[in-house]
Known about the structure:
about 250 residues; mainly alpha; Lysozyme; elongated; 2 domains
Amino acid sequence: MARTNLPIPTGWKLLFRELYRRVHQQVTSPYTKVVFLAALFFVCTQKEISFNLSIAGHDLFSISQQSVFSHGIGGPVISGGAGKALFTSVARPSDKNWTKKQRTQLAYVEKFEAAALSEARKHGIPASITLAQGLLESGHGTSTLAKRNKNHFGIKCFSKQCRKGHCSNHSDDHHKDFFRVFEDAHGSYAAHSQVLLKNRYKPLFKLAKRDYKGWSHGLRKAGYATDPRYGDKLVALIETLELWRYDRVSA
């Protein structure tokens, strides 16, 4: 039996032609290129995007964007450190009446959490330890060394041939002590990691990344500081400000 080709109604032909025209017009238009570039930008910055197709309207593409993060003390965070955006989801701290000093300390933590998390992921140093040391060594960013040298960890200079601006004299345990000078505070965070990667601190990397007590007391035993209560002070900061939250993210 011969196959019979049924004719396509004129109305359907016109509909298909109109749909093709609209699709072709949208795909080749500069607007569509802008839309896709914008979508790519949001994807790269880890934003959540939803695309809706609409054939009935003149615009085939509509974009609705909703941020999946918001910035605030202890809450989900969008942070920028060392010129790079770093996205984390840090659990909120318990609700309690923070003292004025603790709020100042939390503001410091919020400022440098991205740097600490970045170093944690690069080198395996718990972010809680880095933040606690930064708080303690710099007086949450208020020490002369932190302000003048951008040095938040008391990192000393042992080089005998320093270029100009590499270090400066500062009174410490001895009559003459020279400390590193950094262009910005994030530079001292990176240098802090390099200090802890030295052989004397290698045993610490065998500890669990969430073992902030072991790290705190291990730093004291390895000679990071001369204060016999150095480890206890780090633990107190981590527990009071709940800095252990950052280790759960970076582990």
